[in-house]
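Fold this complex.
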Amino acid sequence: MNDSLRRFSINQMTVKQLSLPELVDACLELGVPGVGLWREPVRQYGVAAAAELVRGAGLAVTTLCRGGFLTAIDPGERARALDDNRAAVEEAATLGTDTLVLVSGGLPAGSKDLHGARERIADALAVLGPYAAEHGVRLAIEPLHPMFASDRCVVSTLTQALDLAERFPAEQVGVTVDTYHIWWDDQAPAQIARAGAQGRIHTFQLADWTTPLPEGVLNGRGQLGDGSVDMREWKGYVEAAGYTGPIEVELFNEALWARDGREVLTETARRFVEHAG
Amino acid sequence: MNDSLRRFSINQMTVKQLSLPELVDACLELGVPGVGLWREPVRQYGVAAAAELVRGAGLAVTTLCRGGFLTAIDPGERARALDDNRAAVEEAATLGTDTLVLVSGGLPAGSKDLHGARERIADALAVLGPYAAEHGVRLAIEPLHPMFASDRCVVSTLTQALDLAERFPAEQVGVTVDTYHIWWDDQAPAQIARAGAQGRIHTFQLADWTTPLPEGVLNGRGQLGDGSVDMREWKGYVEAAGYTGPIEVELFNEALWARDGREVLTETARRFVEHAG
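Structure:
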């Protein structure tokens, strides 16, 4: 294995044009030691089969993305969300990863109550945290950029994520530190230190910030080095906070998806070494 | 004048399809007492002529938008930005408004240094603050939503705006409180209180948050009541902080611009009464 890629993990979404076996092959060929997996393609392939494929190749599964969407008010919807998150915990355990990333959910239709939505997330974590810990899985609340606050994730900052996580033991609930979502926030470095001191940095993900943002803003995550984020600066913050684990590159980007997946993986590994190695 | 519109001011950009005389006519007809003006259309009409037109109609000019763009590194570019902002101060004084809104500027090309950019804004304010005060004009730093941090405004939160403003007297530098930019931020209510206690709420603007965001995200500001923002809640925060001044509605929205301007103004006044009256 290429030592400069020792901490590199490719999030499956970055090269979603590759099937799971293609992704595994490409990782072996390039010396990529870890993958972050997504539930939908994994379930399509079969969770047990995916676990066997990845384990057989000696790849680490650094995270499973994603659980969450815990902000519903309707009791039936809430029960279904909890069931789905319990299933996600079981899938994570089967895949051999200790980290399930949570995208908490946006405002229910017609609601303007961010505080109430955040409290419903806490209520759900009180159920899911112990369940996850029983399965050897930690929940990693991901603050999403404030531009997603209404429709995807009412947890917009590391401060808010930690305010939630701290209500639970660190082995149950921590946070996802993703440069794309927090790079603009001058309070984030201190919050990374806070998270590290509590052992709550459960995963560290990289993407660059590029503009103009595309319509809907979801698929505008930039290749490392193409945008405004100093990857080494943020890597320095998490390292200073004691985090020495894998570093996932997670890009949602139509232009990258339109290209050959192996080529994108090769480029991403090279950019990782150049900007965060 | 309709008393429920007593504090309403229409930002010119909301109905940019109207010429300045058309805007003034429509305001008089509907009983709208104030307008927030923009430099480009005002200069096109002539600053002195615009001042006479608006004053003759008895309309208050609640703000002039906008100065700023103070983050350049290049000395020539910085000098030009200062000159341009001095001109904006003079235009504000001519128009009879005491408030010049500042959009601070994004990262210079190739730079990833948000902190440095914010410090260059402070350097510029040290020059422009006294100049503005001499002309009876206050500068109102507008934190823009974090999605604009790289390309438009490195000041992303009220906290950051106040950290900058506090280096100067309140009669020189304060902040713009705009619901669109801060609605997601659970620290904003406390920052509004901080701003109010210091007499630094220089203007209060409303727009709603609607999704999906359009490409480039600039022109997605929603009509009041169409989105996720509880206008009365935010009005309550600024009032509790002692702000009793005009409330501007500022929408950049392609769909509104495509409609008849008077109709949009009528609708906006109605929405103001319904959601913030």
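The mean pLDDT of chain A is 97.
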